[in-house]
């Protein structure tokens, strides 16, 4: 079958599924200016609230998925795997987007695995996107997908064999960060701070340091040393953490 090229200047995007996943991507793409509202579409079969949500920011809403496919150059499956029958992308995915060309994942056109952050207005936005091209995908396909998703988040391209590790690190990682925030807040409460203040300080501390690692490109160990004075309370706390299973030196425990 001949593969026709997709125009990067005029392509239309359709979503199979009209839940939070599709909404977050569509909102981000529209807000970034990557695509005008009328070049996005989805299908709502019965849920009036979903129809109103998408129509509120200009997305075309059809009555069937067939209409979405006919009107779209790029189709994004944004459905829960337990609801619709699709090729498995990876285990335990909170959100996965892909287009399967056959029963073999390696032959899929492309697979996207992304992570969400809830904004103040309770909308989900993309922050990290991991892409793996299948054997049926061309470099032009990859460039188009990278341009589309790169407009709303940070894009990473990896080999399929790395997706299990991606799941372990970024899929499960948020739970560990939440535990760290909780532990920091508990420590603040133990030191006499009100719970709300301790939680606010802990979450902003993690947010600020994560931003610093991302923006500076420095190794976390270097940044840690920058804020650790000889004989101070910080290095004493680091020493206590490393006596447990916090440090990467305890590899087996961390796994």
From TrEMBL:
Q: Which PANTHER family match?
A: PYRROLINE-5-CARBOXYLATE REDUCTASE (PTHR11645), PYRROLINE-5-CARBOXYLATE REDUCTASE 3 (PTHR11645:SF0)
Residue numbers binding NADP(+): 16-21
Residue ranges annotated for the Pyrroline-5-carboxylate reductase catalytic N-terminal domain, each copy included: 12-83
Full protein name? (rape) hypothetical protein
Family per record: Belongs to the pyrroline-5-carboxylate reductase family.
Sorted UniProt keywords: NADP, Oxidoreductase
Domain Pyrroline-5-carboxylate reductase dimerisation per the UniProt entry, residue ranges: 160-245
Q: Which InterPro entries match?
A: 6-PGluconate_DH-like_C_sf, NAD(P)-bd_dom_sf, P5C_Rdtase_cat_N, P5CR-like_CS, P5CR_dimer, Pyrroline-COOH_reductase
- Species assigned in the record: Brassica napus
Q: Which GO terms describe its molecular function?
A: pyrroline-5-carboxylate reductase activity
């Amino acid at each position: 079958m001949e593969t026709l090229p997709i125009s990067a200047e005029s392509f239309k995007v359709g979503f199979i599924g009209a839940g939070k996943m599709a909404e977050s991507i569509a909102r981000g793409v529209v807000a970034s200016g990557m695509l005008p509202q009328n070049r996005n579409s989805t299908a709502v079969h019965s849920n009036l609230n979903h129809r109103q949500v998408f129509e509120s920011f200009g997305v075309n809403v059809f009555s069937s998925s067939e209409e979405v496919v006919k009107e779209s150059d790029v189709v994004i499956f944004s459905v829960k795997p337990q609801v619709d029958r699709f090729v498995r992308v990876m285990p335990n995915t909170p959100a996965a987007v892909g287009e399967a060309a056959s029963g073999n994942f390696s032959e899929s056109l492309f697979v996207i695995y992304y992570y969400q952050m809830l904004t103040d207005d309770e909308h989900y936005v993309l922050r990290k996107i991991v892409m793996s091209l299948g054997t049926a995908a061309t470099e032009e396909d990859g460039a188009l997908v990278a341009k589309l998703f790169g407009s709303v988040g940070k894009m990473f391209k990896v080999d399929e064999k790395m997706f299990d590790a991606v799941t372990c690190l970024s899929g499960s990682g948020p739970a560990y960060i939440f535990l760290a925030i909780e532990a920091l807040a508990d420590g603040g409460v133990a030191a006499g701070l009100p719970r709300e203040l301790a939680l606010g300080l802990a979450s902003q501390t993690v947010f600020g340091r994560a931003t610093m690692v991302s923006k500076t490109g420095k190794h976390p160990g270097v940044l840690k040393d920058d804020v650790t004075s000889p004989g101070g309370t910080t290095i004493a706390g680091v020493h206590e953490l490393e006596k447990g299973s916090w440090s990467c030196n305890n590899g087996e425990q961390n796994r």
